[in-house]
Amino acid sequence: MRTDFAAKIEPYNTGCFASDVVFKGENITVTQEEYEDIIAKKDEFDPSDMHAYLVTVPKYMEGETRLGKKEHYQDIVNKVMACKACVSEDNVVPYLLGTIETFANTSEQLFEHHMAIRTAFKEVLSEYKDKLCSMPPKKKIIAAYAINRAIDMKVLLAEKYEALVDKLMD
């Protein structure tokens, strides 16, 4: 189904991180240098800046899981929760994409952190799912991608959310 997302987002592909994730369909991979840079700047994080959240937090989690010792997991979860408190109708789509990409890079071994990110995604989606269908086409496609990715990772039940993905893709 990823091919459908790429074809749908092609006209809206502006090179932004969100459309790149959907368009390229690639997993996030962080270099050691990028990871160290994220760690060095982690205290400069502004939870109201959803673009920074989308670009930084999934990479922070991927680096921490693959290159780090998982000692910064609580900081990452705190950033997910701080951003959750700043979600609005204007920035819900980058939050959903950033959160599901963060979840995708979270080790299941640290159950509480894994569940906290999963719960944050589900709560925000539940609050905003009725508003997603009235958003501009690019946001709808990115939201559909995030929801479909959540279905693929068993965060959401397919029978409950596939119809929403289809509606967002029309």
Describe this structure in words.
The protein has 9 helices and no strands. It has one domain.
Q: What topology emerges from the helices and strands here?
A:
Blueprint: H1 2-9, H2 17-24, H3 32-40, H4 50-66, H5 73-84, H6 92-104, H7 111-132, H8 137-152, H9 158-169
Helix pairs in contact: 1-2, 1-8, 3-4, 4-5, 4-6, 5-7, 6-7, 6-8, 8-9
Helix percent band: 55-70%
Query: What is the arithmetic mean of pLDDT?
Result: 87
Shape: globular
- What is the string of helix and strand elements? HHHHHHHHH
Largest sheet: none
**In angstroms, what separates the terminal alpha carbons?**
14 Å
Poorly predicted parts: none
Number of helices: 9
Estimated radius of gyration: 15 Å
Strands, total number = 0
> What fraction of the residues are assigned to beta strands by DSSP?
under 5%
- Helix/sheet category: mainly alpha
Number of domains: 1
Oligomer: single chain
